[in-house]
Protein 1
Amino acid sequence: MRRGRRGGTVSRRSWLTAYLFLAPGLLLFAAFRLYPLLDGLRLSFTNARLGRPAQAFVGLANYERLLDDTRFHTSLYNTVFYTVASTLPILAIPLLLAVALNRGTMRTVLRGAFFFPFTLSVVTVGLTWLWLLDPVVGPFNYYLRALGGPARSWLADPTTAMWVIIVTTVWWVTGYYLVIYLAGLQDIPRDLYESAALDGAGAIRSFWAITLPLLRPVLLFVFVTHMIGSFQIFGQVFVLTQGGPGDATRTVVQHLYETAFQNFFHFGSASAMAWVLFAIILVFSVLQFRLLRGHTEY
Amino acid sequence: MSERHAGVSRRKFIAGAAATSGAAWLAGGARRVAAQAKPTITYWNGLTGADGKVMDELIDQFTRETGIKIEQQRIPWADLYAKLQVSVPAGEGPDLALIHTVEVPHFASDGVLEVIDEGTLGNKGFRAADYLPATWQGGTYESKRYSIALDVPQHVLYLNVKVMKEAGLVGPDGRPKVPGSRDELIAMAKQMAKGDSFGVAIGTVGPGRYTWGFHNLLWQNGANVFTPDLKRSALADPAAIEVAEFWGNLFGPLKIAPPANASCRDAFIAGKLGMWIAGSWNFTGLRDAKVEFTAAPVPRLFKQPVVWSMPHQFTFPKPRAADAAKRDAAWTHIRWMTDHVADWTLKAGQVSASRKAHSDPRIAADPVLRVLMSQGANWQVGQPSPRWVAAENLTRPVIESVYIAQKPARAAMEDLARQINALPV
C-alpha cells in the first residue's frame, strides 16, 4: 500500500477527505432526521405532553393503549384500504399515459398538461375538489342533476368518501409518476422493439414482453414510494373530509396529528403511533423489495 | 415702543438663544426618552378573517395615540393554541394573546397563562358590573382570573328574505316569519326544502360536525358535555340523547337540512337555504355579498332560549422573566380596546363583552347588532373544564355519524360519553 508523506495510507486519507466532504450533510442528517427519530422513540415510552417539562417513563403503556384505541384501529384500516385501493390506479394510469405519450405529436403539450396538477399544493388540490364536489353549490352535482344523474354528497357519504379521496390523489400525482415512467421508457433500447416487430410482435405483445419487464426497476420505485406515501396520507383527508363522515376517512397520520396537537398534546402516545406506522411501512417496503427485486439487462 | 426697549443687546440675545436651545433640547430629549421608553409588545391572535384587518386599523390607531407599538401575529386558531402550548413554557410566548373562552381552563391548568390578581384588575378599571355574567365568568378557572373578555361571538338566526318570500313565509310587512318553536321551525323548513334547496341549517361549513351548534341545542335542553362537578360526561343523559335524535333527524328523516359537508354559508348566499343558525361573525360577509336577509334571536328549540357564545379573551401568557413595562403596555392596550370596543363592534360585527358600548347609538342603530345584544341575557359559554376542548374534538365525528344516520343517536352518545370519560384528567 502506498504511503503518504505523513505516514498515513492513501486510502485512510481518502476516507478522511470523503468524510470531511460528507460531514455537513451527515451533521444535518443527524440533527434533523436521526435525532428526531430516536427522540420520538424515547418519547413513545414516556407520558410526554407538549409544553410540560416533566416526563415519566411509562414503559410500553402507550403501545398497549393503542391496542384498545378503536379509533386508531379504524384509522389503520382506512389507511390500509386507501393504500391498497389506490395502488393499482396509481401504477396503471400513469404507465398507460406514459406509453401513449412516449411518442407522437403534441406529446410535450400533453405531458405538461398532465404534470400541471402536481405543481399545485395539496391544500389547493383539496380546496378545488371540495368546491367542485360541494353537494349544494358545486358544479359536479349541478351537471349531474342536469344530465339526470344521481347527485349526492360524495364526501359526506361513508361509502364514497374514501373513493373520492383516491380519485383526487390519482388526479394529483399522475403527472409525477408519468414523468418517472417516461424516463424509464426512454432508457429501453429501440432496437428491442424493432427486433420484436420483425418477429411479428404487435404493440400489446411488445408491451408485455419488453416494456413491462424492462420497466421493472421503475415500477418498483413507483410502487415503493407510493406505498410509503399512502401510509402517510394526511393532507388530502385533512382538507377534504377532516376524517369524516364520522371516522370513515380517518387515517393514521390524522389520528396521530390530533393526538399530538389537538387532544391534550400527548406526544408520548403520538410518538408510539408514529413508530407503529414506521414499523408497518418498513415491513411493507422490505416485502416489496424482496418480491420485485431482480436484475434488468439490456 | 421706545428705542431702548426695542433693541436687544448681544449678551441678552445670546443668553436668550442659549436658553431657548437648551429648553428645546431638553424637551426633545424628554420626548426621545419618552418615545424610547414605550415598549413594543407582541400580540398573537387568530383573527384571520376580515376582522383581522379591522384589528390592524385599530392597532394602528392605538399606536398613534399611545406610542406603544404592537407586533401582531395572526395565526389560525388551532395553530395558535398549539404554538402557545409550546412557546410559552420555552419562554418564547407573546406579551398578549387573544384566545377563546373554552381554551382558558386547559391553558390555565397547564401553567401557560398568568393569573390576573383582582387588585390589578380593579386598578385598570375592570369591574364585574360592566360585563354580563357569562362573559365575566368565562375568564376564570378554579376561582382565579386568567383573562378579560373583549367581545362575544355568538349564534344568531339568519333569514333569507328571497327564499322565505318564495315559500310564502313572510308577514304582511314583507319580513320573514320567525319560528317560535321546534315544531314551527320544522314546518317552515319543510316548506322551503326541495331538491338542492334546504329549509334550515346549523353551522357555517360542515353542519354535520358543527359542535358549537350541537352544544347550543344541548344547553337549550338543559344538558351539557360534563356533569356539573365536571367529573364525568353527561352526554349519555336522556336530555343529551334527545338533542342527538333531533340532530339525526335534520338531514335524514326530515330532509330539511343540507348534507353533512355542505357549505351552509355558500348555500345561504346562493339562495338555497332559508333559515340559518350560525355565528354572528358571518353577518358582515352576508352584507358584502349583498344577500337580502334579516336576523332574529336563536329560536328556542328545546326547554330554554339559550344562545351559544364564545367570548374572545385577552390573556397574558407567562413570560420568561417579568417585564413591568411590557405588561403595563399590554394593559394599556386592553384598556384602550375596551374603551374603543364600539368601533370594533361596528367594523368587525362582534358585540362587545363590556356593557358600556351596548348603549352606543351607532350600535343600537344597526338591526343585526341590536338582535345580537338582545340575546345577552341568554348567552352561555362552555364549561370550565381542561378537558372541554379534547371532548369537543371527540364530539365532532360522532355527531356527524348521527347526522348522516351512520349511528343511532343513543349508541353514539353513549360511545362518546365513554370516550370523554376516558380522557386523562
Protein 2
Amino acid sequence: MSAPTTTAVPATSEPATPGALAPPPLSELQALESESVHIFREVAATFRSPVMLFSGGKDSVVMLHLAAKAFWPAPVPFTLLHVDTGHNFPEVLEYRDWATGFYGARLEVASVQDYLDDGRLRERPDGQRNPLQTVPLLDAITEGRHDAVFGGGRRDEERARAKERVYSLRDEFGQWDPRNQRPELWSLYNGRHLPGEHVRVFPLSNWTELDVWDYIEAEGIALPTIYYAHQREVVLRDDMWVAVTPVTPVRDGEQVEQRSVRYRTVGDMSCTAAVLSSATTVAEVITEVGLSSLTERGATRADDRMSEAAMEDRKREGYF
Amino acid sequence: MATTTTGRAGHGAGARTASGRRTLLRLATAGSVDDGKSTLVGRLLFDTDSVLADTLDHVELVSRRKGLDRADLALLTDGLRAEREQGITIDVAYRYFHTPARKFILADCPGHVQYTRNTVTGSSTADVIVLLVDARKGVVEQTRRHLAVASLLRVPHVVLVVNKIDLVDFAEDVFTAVATDFARLALSLGVADSHAIPVSATEGDNVVTRSTRTPWYDGPTVLSYLETVDDTPVAVGADLRFPVQYVIRPQSAALAPWASAAPAVDGDYRGYAGKVESGRVRVGAEVVVLPRGSHATVTAIDTPDGPLEVAVAGQSVTLRLDTDVDVSRGDVLAATDAPPAPVREITATVCWLAERELTVGARVLVQHGTSLTKAVVRSLDGSLDLTYGAGGTPTWQPAARLGLNDIGRLRLALANPLPVDSYREHRTTGAFILVDEADGWTLGAGMVGSSAIPSGPATPSGPATPAPATSAAPVDAPSAAGGAGTHSAERSPA
C-alpha cells in the first residue's frame, strides 16, 4: 500500500493565487526545518560514517527529531553517541534511552567514568567533568572512524559560535581554527577533508533558543521532565540555583531551600544550575524564555563563566 | 523607491500567528572600517531587545575597562579573541533578532578591503544588503566595491545607511547628495532595488526609532524597512529545479514508534529526497530527469507530516516518480518547459576566495547543486577592476591569474555535463563553488552565465540592461570563438 495522495494539503503549501509567479515565502519554522533536513541529507549522502552527538538535551532532541523526519520512511542512517560524564541527571539518562527507541535509532555511549577508573583521565580539582569529555569524544570518533559528527550547537548561544560554519572542519586533534575556516556559500556545503580530519556539522546553526522551543511546541516533541518546573532542593551559590546532588553537596554556610525550578540546559550536574520557574508547559516556558533577561548559557552554565574566551578556548581544543 | 516600502497585503507584515507564520529574512551588512557597522548592528540588537542582561553586563564591563564612558554597542558583535585584540572584525558572524513579523538572520561582514570574500559569502544567501557610508565621506571606493559585489551576487534589495548624520548636523542636503550619488551608482550596476536612510547608529536615530531630528525624511527606519521589504523570492526562477540529494529506500525496515502517525508505505518504497530550489512541483506533473533527459511523472510528494499536492521553493520533500529508471544523487528534476541544457563547458564569473592563485589550466572540482565533477580552467577572460572612480563603472581588465578577493571571468571545461542555469534567473542552480581536489579547500564562488556587470566601455544608458531575455537559452553553448587570448570580451550567452 502506498501513501494516500488525497489528504488535505497541510499549511505548508501556498494559497492558490493564480498568476502569481513566485511562491510566497515559507514560515520561519518551515524554513528552518527545511534547511536542517537539507543538511542532514547532504551529510548522509556524502560522508562514509556520520555519527550524531545525543545527550537528551533539548537541542539534541530537536536534532534527532529532524533527522528522523529527513529520512522517513527509512530509519535514521547513522548512530547516536553520548559522552556520559557520569554526572548526568538520572531523569535525562532515562529519557535518552527512551528517545533512542522512540526514534528507532542506535546509541553508543562513551563513558568518562571508565577513563577515570582505569587512569586514562584524572578528576579535576574543581570536580567539573565537562572539560574531561574531549578525550573520550575524540577517541570515539577515531575508533568509530566517523568522518562527520553532528552537534546541536546554535550560533545564537555564544559569541564564538556566531562565526562557526554549518560544516566545521577539525584536524586530528579535533581542533577548530577560527582564523582558517572555509567560506560557506549559498547552500553548497563542502565536506571534503583529508584522512584523519573530520567535519563537525551543526544543523541547528540558524535556530535561536526561542525557535527550538517554538518547534518543540509545534511538533509536540517530548523532553526530559527536568526542563519543566518541579520541586527540588537547591542552594543559592554564586547567584545561581544549584541542585543538591551527590556531586554538588551542600557547602558550609549554605541554606537548602525547596524551590520550584526548571533547567534551561541539562548538561553535567556539577556545572548546570536551575532557574526559578513555574512553567510546566512548553507555552509557559516560551513565555519565560521570551521575557527572560539572561541568555541561556550565561544563566546556568558555570563553565562558560570561567573566562571571557572560555567557549572559544574549549572549541579550539575539540569541545563542541 | 516606493517598491521598498510598500507592504503587501496577505502575508509578511501581519502579526505572528499561533501557527508561526512569521517569515525569515536574511541580510548581510557591508561598509568600510570606520563607518560604524558594528555599532549599527549592536543598535539593531539592542533596540529590538535582542540583547540580554548578562551580555550587556559583559559589554559594559569591557567598555569600562577600555576607559569608555558608555557601553560600546560594537562590542556586542565582536566574537573572536583576535578581533577583540585588534579591534577589527575578521570573519562573517551571524546574528539573530526578530520582531512579530519577521525573524532576521544577519550576516555581519567585515569591512576591510582584504576581506571582500566575506562580503561575497554573506551576500550569497542575502535577501537584503545593508550598506553603510559615513555621511561626511559619502560614497567611497569601498562602497562601490561592495555594491558591485551585491550586484554580481544578485542580492534583490540594497539599503544604504547614511550613518553619522548627527556629525553633519542632520543636514538634508548632505543626505540628498549621498543618496543621489548612490542611486545613480546602483542603477548603473543593475541593482534592482535600492533605498537610502539617514541614521545615527550611536544615538539611535532612524535605526529602530524614528528620529525627530530628520523631519525632512519621511521614509522608513532601518528596522521598518527590513520588516516590510518584499521577501517574495524574486531571485528564484519560476521553473522547477529539484536536485536529488538522497534516495530513500526503507527496504522493509521497521518503522519507529514516532512515525506511527505518518502515512504507511510499501516495502518497495523508493523516494527521491531533495529541496525544491526554484519553482514548484505538483503531483501529476511531468518532469525531465537531467542530465539524462528522460521524462517521468511525479506520483507523490511525501513528508512525514502527510502527503502534499504541491511543494514550493525552499521546501525539503521526497518525490516519487512513475518510473523505475535509475534516478540518483546529482540528478536534477526540472520542469519540462525550458529545462536547462546539460553542458560540458561553462562561462562564469568567479569570486576567488583562496590565497593560492588561479591560472589557466588549473584542475579543480566544481560543486553544483548535489553534483561534483572535475574541471579544467580553459581560459581566464578578465578580472574585474573595482577601483573605479565616481561616475564610472567597474571594468574587466586582462588578467593572467586570479588572487585572493579577485573577481574574474573564466571558462571551465567539465568532465561530466552539468544542467546549469544562468545565475541571472536561478540564484541557486546558477551557482557553484570551486574546490581544491587535493586538500578540499573552497577556492571560489561561481556564477554561471553573463555577469550583471557588463564588459566593455560603460554606456551611459545601458549597463543596467536587466538580463536581456537570456531566458531559456542554454547558458553556455560551447563556442569555438573567444578562447584563450581574448581577454576583455565577455562572451554573451548563446
